[in-house]
TrEMBL record, chain A:
Heterotrimer of A, B and C subunits. The active site is at K77 (charge relay system), S152 (charge relay system), S176 (acyl-ester intermediate). This is Glutamyl-tRNA(Gln) amidotransferase subunit A. Coiled coil: none annotated. It comes from Planococcus halotolerans. Its EC number is 6.3.5.7. Residues 24-463 form the Amidase domain.
From TrEMBL, chain B:
GO terms for biological process: glutaminyl-tRNAGln biosynthesis via transamidation; regulation of translational fidelity; translation. InterPro entries: Asp/Glu-ADT_sf_sub_c, GatC. It holds the Pfam family GatC. The keyword Ligase applies. This is Aspartyl/glutamyl-tRNA(Asn/Gln) amidotransferase subunit C. Signal peptide: none annotated. Allows the formation of correctly charged Asn-tRNA(Asn) or Gln-tRNA(Gln) through the transamidation of misacylated Asp-tRNA(Asn) or Glu-tRNA(Gln) in organisms which lack either or both of asparaginyl-tRNA or glutaminyl-tRNA synthetases. The reaction takes place in the presence of glutamine and ATP through an activated phospho-Asp-tRNA(Asn) or phospho-Glu-tRNA(Gln). SUPFAM superfamilies: Glu-tRNAGln amidotransferase C subunit (SSF141000). It is an enzyme of class 6 (ligase). Heterotrimer of A, B and C subunits.
Length: 489, 96
């Protein structure tokens, strides 16, 4: 029997009716990864031995004590700390780093009974939109192996799209879950800032980073967010708000839902096919009882510049901890302490990370602080206000997730500004801190397109409800890449 | 439009503790100039009376109870240290 095309509920049914064991599911998952990953290159490290041991122990747990994700396999992005399992954030500077504690989300996965099968490739320190910035390998898009999977959580979305694993965690600072989810044709959620603890997430930009779930369908996504959400005393920026039952929000009823469609998100640079797919999606939602109106988020065009100044500034500060002294890569060329630091960091970081550290250092340096950093913080206020105003009259805001589908590996890697433009439709969401999901909504040629559904603060429930109605009314999420069938089971 | 010189990049790299060659500095100067010029777009906006946003949620500082808690064992903490001796982190000799 094949397990890799099943939903969480279907897998649980097999387990509870004794047609499958957790050990069998885990074993098949690992076999499929071993078979497909030489092509996809999504995984950096495997956790085979411990996963199999955990699975066999879980098989003895009483059925009535098992939750909806108990015994199901998951992969974790490599910037999330997993005790005893190498965690590098895809950087040379953390080569071989073996965490001595778990991120809070990892503790929560364990509490939910999930089986961690391995760590997933990403752009170094989550800086990038293509996975080409990993020090270790380039993950490929399962829909066409010559194309990028997107980034920075490209390993997390490619692994799900290839059917290697049904659940992964990613992180999203400017679109790093939603953009690769769109490129790979899977479901990716960036929760409200503060919804999920960042303790044990290797920090990139602390005021923007948020961990979130990647899955093949909306229901499973809601279940996984349920497992990882909640206040954490170890993260003072995690919000002390109640976590609702996300799966219960999938009522199928969006009658009277007010959808705002920002005209700025359909501007120059957004491909005709991406626009058309969203217009079609809006028709589907209208048929289900929603109303659609064009709105304006007038400061959208300033989001990219604001983001790169703020995110790079925060990164330059966060990444100053990597100095080669207590852990991580260490240079062997140093004649002074200063030399030691400078060579360790120059040899340990890749070009994009250096670019952002330098941009951030520049923006924070005396003489430029007001002109760049403080200015950007003020514009952030205006961008946030655009969303606050819109949510007074609308329940969700809908747009394409990305201006175009995935591009070819190597196509724009040397042009940072063009690369950054991939995130123009996702970045404002992080600056405002609101939640947003990307769900499959069409294709341009063979490559998937994503629909972005943005919600109000802590209203992931409405986002999931709309996403679920759309998914049930369409077939895009049922399509699988060719490589999916190629695997023998 | 601001011009980014090789010398400025070398200075910034120094502040960021990144060793950099002249060739790299020229390359980064071009890219950082293009990036900072794109950032100048923000100057279109009058933000004189706008408050800066550092965090999107209303947040207050959180303090835990002032009670001693055991830290991680030293052996565990030293696990990722490249070289250590007698429970202390060893670094290369840097003084003649």
């Amino acid at each position: 029997m094949k397990f890799y095309d099943k939903t969480a509920a279907e897998l649980q049914e097999l387990i509870h009716s004794n047609e499958a064991t957790i050990t069998e599911i885990t074993k098949q998952t690992i076999e499929r990864i071993n078979e497909l990953d030489p092509k996809v290159d999504a995984f950096l490290a495997m956790n085979e031995e411990k996963a199999m041991a955990a699975a066999s122990e879980m098989d003895t747990a009483p059925m009535e004590q098992r939750g909806p994700l108990f015994g199901l396999p998951i992969g974790v992005k490599d910037n999330i700390m997993t005790e005893g399992l190498v965690t590098t954030a895809s950087s040379r500077i953390l080569e071989g780093f073996n965490p001595i504690y778990n991120a809070t989300v990892v503790e929560k996965l364990r509490a939910a009974g999930m089986v961690i099968v391995g760590k997933l490739n990403m752009d170094e320190f989550a800086m990038g939109s293509s996975n080409e910035n990993s020090y270790y390998k380039k993950t490929r898009n399962p829909w066409n192996l010559d194309y990028v999977p997107g980034g920075s959580s490209g390993g997390s979305t490619a692994a799900v799209a290839a059917g290697e694993v049904p659940f992964t965690l990613g992180s999203d600072t400017g679109g790093s879950i939603r953009q690769p989810a769109a490129f790979c044709g899977v479901v990716g959620m960036k929760p409200t800032y503060g919804r999920v603890s960042r303790f044990g997430l290797i920090a990139f930009a602390s005021s923007l980073d948020q961990i979130g779930p990647v899955t093949r369908n909306v229901k499973d996504n809601a279940l996984l967010l349920q497992a990882i959400a909640g206040h954490d005393e170890k993260d003072s920026t995690s919000a002390d708000v109640e976590v609702p039952d996300f799966a219960a929000a999938l009522t199928g009823d969006i009658n009277g839902l007010r959808i705002g469609v920002p005209k700025e998100y359909f501007a120059e640079g957004v491909s005709e096919s991406a626009k058309a797919a969203v217009y079609d999606a809006l028709e589907v939602l209208k048929e289900k009882g929603a109303t659609v109106e064009e709105i304006s988020l007038p400061h959208s065009k300033y989001a990219l510049a604001t983001y790169y100044l703020l995110a790079s500034s925060e990164a330059s500060s966060n990444l100053s901890r990597f100095d080669g002294i207590r852990y991580g890569y260490r240079t062997n060329k140093a004649s002074s302490l200063l030399d030691f630091y400078m060579n360790t960091r120059a040899e340990g970081f890749g070009d994009e990370v250096k670019r952002r550290i330098m941009l951030g250092t520049y923006a924070l340096s005396s003489g430029y602080y007001d002109a760049y950093y403080k200015k950007a913080q003020k514009v952030r206020t205006l961008i946030k206000k655009d969303f606050d105003d819109a949510f007074k009259n609308y329940d969700v805001i809908i747009s394409p997730t990305t201006p175009t589908p995935a591009f070819k590996i190597g196509e724009i890697i040397d042009d940072p500004l063009t690369m950054y433009a991939n995130d123009i439709l996702t970045i404002p969401v992080n600056l405002a801190g609101v939640p947003a999901i990307s769900v499959p909504c069409g294709f341009e040629g063979d490559m998937p397109l994503g629909l972005q559904i943005i919600g109000n603060y802590f209203d992931e429930e409405t986002v999931y409800r709309v996403a679920d109605v759309f998914e049930k009314a369409t077939d895009f999420h049922k399509k699988t890449p060719q490589l999916w069938e190629g695997a023998a089971q | 439009m601001a011009k980014m010189t090789k010398e400025e990049v070398i200075e910034v790299a120094h502040l960021a503790r990144l060793a950099i060659t002249d060739e790299e500095a020229i390359h980064f100067a071009e890219q950082l100039e293009a990036i900072t010029n794109a950032m100048e777009l923000l100057n279109e906006l009058d933000t004189e009376n706008v408050e800066p946003t550092t965090h999107v949620l209303p947040m207050v500082n959180v303090l835990r109870e002032d009670k001693a808690e055991a830290g991680l064992p030293r052996e565990t903490v030293l696990k990722n240290v490249k070289e250590h001796e007698a429970g202390q982190v060893k670094v290369p000799t840097i003084l003649e």
